[in-house]
Automatic annotation (TrEMBL):
Keyword Magnesium appears in the UniProt entry: no
Organism, scientific name: Candidatus Methanodesulfokora washburnensis
Family matches, as Gene3D superfamilies: bsu32300-like
Annotated family: Belongs to the HepT RNase toxin family.
Recorded GO MF terms: hydrolase activity; RNA nuclease activity
A Pfam family: HepT-like
Name recorded for this polypeptide: DUF86 domain-containing protein
Chain segments annotated as transmembrane: none
Keywords of this entry: Hydrolase, Nuclease, Toxin-antitoxin system
CC per GO annotation: toxin-antitoxin complex
InterPro entries associated with the record: HepT-like, HepT-like_sf
Amino acid sequence: GEYPRRLAEAKKMPKDIAEEIEKLAGLRNILVHRYLKVRREMLYDAAKNTVNEIINRFMEWVKEIDP
């Protein structure tokens, strides 16, 4: 989470992309530290939705940079 936030603050990455990446870091923390008993279905849905959001927004951002 820290680096995407820094990139967004430096205007090197859109804030919404940085926020989505931070969500992945939060998901990683749940898995690594076993904060909760995680159901596989919940994990799959959360990862898929977050990754899809990041990929879609990243592609939009790239098109803004180089249409």
